[in-house]
Amino acid sequence: MRTLKSKYIRNLAIAGISAVVALAGCTKDFERINTNPYGVSEDDLKTDFRLIGEPFKQIQNSIYGNSPGWVMQIQQNLEGDIWSGYMGVPGPFGNGGNNNSTYNLIDGWTVVMWGCAYGNYPDAPNLSVMPVARRIEQLAGEEFKDFKAWMLILKVLVMQRVSDVYGPIIYTKYGVINPDKSIDYDSQKDAYYAFFKDLNDAITVLTPLRTSTLKPFEKFDLTYDGSYSAWLKFANSLRLRLAIRIAKIDPGKAKTEGEAALANPGGLLETTADIAAVNIAPTPNPYNTYTSGYNDIRMGAPMESILTGYKDPRMPKYFEPSAAVPGVYKGIRTGIALPDKIYADYSKLAPMPSKMQLMTAAEVWFLKAEAALRGWTGAGDAAENYEQGVRASFAQYELSSRADAYLADNTSRAVPYVDTKNAANNVGAGHATLSNITIRWEEGDAFERKLERIITQKWIAVFPDGQEAWSEFRRTGYPKLFKVVVNNSGGKIPTDLYIRRVNFAFTEYASNPLGVQRAVTLLGGPDNGGTRLWWDKP
């Protein structure tokens, strides 16, 4: 077993032991960041990789800010989860209903994802994902290049999500303070290119280790129990996800990166055993708190429309029947008038385990289906990949015996949506936002209809990760979602175009005004929710 050399101990002592333990929650009090609350000795840190390994738990727990639970509620649930059509709020919630659900973006909400990535940067540089990742990089050196590779994968995973919310981010220039005290952002294109470089570096290190039985990550890995081969599969799959994301705006780069992911001998996520999910036990899954503890979240109307129309057996795995109409699943349309919590009797989310999903095998099969549709080498056959995606999702929920009948269905479509409390929110038959895509693969269909079929099934399978579903909706326009009825954006977000992004953190305007002003020029439009991201090509 390798041991940590004393120079790393000295480096950590100089920097403060807080880099190892500071990230217990994105918004906690860090008054004692220069003390060691665990009381570990130098001898303890010299063995078992604890010095370099302990921060990884914190990074994994901050992908979703799951403790305290309300952090993720603002970080994702009241953003991507509702904008993706997965979920809806049953009452006015904050600001009398004049909030994210009606496109009036609340600064105190939109800042949280930024804080979980950076902390109060640059004033408190050891409090969140990017500062901790940087400390790991400084400690790793050549001796611990496998730990550095693991860190790069996690950093890309986190910062891809941040970029897909805001656009330009501080990534390659992190820690570089200009003479005017500002910090520069990367354009989203530059950030994505840096993501690919970091993933390639990590994959290069892990590929020859894929058959190794060593598990130096094991004590710190909340996802794959320290398996090199599992992390390599995940890195390849993440690379493919990012490649598909830029396929419309930068098809050459997308093809190069996607084909590299497809060709790597380590492979991709393929089965239920490969699913990437952070084990947060004994902390309860925050979604259980939001739906049953807070009673703040319910099923989304598009989920009701599509899953009911498809007679989808995954419905009870995702949601509970409503109390409003016993035995029937009822969803809430996002962006409606909510005088009170009148939709609390609509469908709750079904109970979820203490695992936070990062990526499923089903998603990767659908990524391969689109890659095949685009003619990428190594992607295989689009139809076979599409069917494998459905089967992988059914297997994830122990429904494999029902996959054949589902895949053979060429008639079922989304059904009209009926709001039992306010008919003004209904979406009737033939409405432009009501999906008419069927389930069975049709080889004779045009490219766009095949793409809609792939993305609709991916949308179902990626649940409950609303941010990823929202990103794919923005990129493709699929599945068809219902527009808001009440738009309180003051004209900044056109109703017909849906919300495209979140404005930069207000804390950046206070602490890094020159940097964020330059970031707006990189954005290519005003800093509001109506401006498209780089990869969000019309």
From TrEMBL:
**To which species is this protein native?**
Chitinophaga chungangae
PROSITE patterns, sorted: PROKAR_LIPOPROTEIN
Which Pfam families does this UniProt record tie to the protein? Answer: SusD-like (PF12741)
Which keywords are on file for this protein?
Lipoprotein, Signal
Xref: InterPro entries? SusD-like (IPR024302), TPR-like_helical_dom_sf (IPR011990)
Q: Which residues form the signal peptide?
A: 1-24
Q: What is this protein called?
A: SusD/RagB family nutrient-binding outer membrane lipoprotein
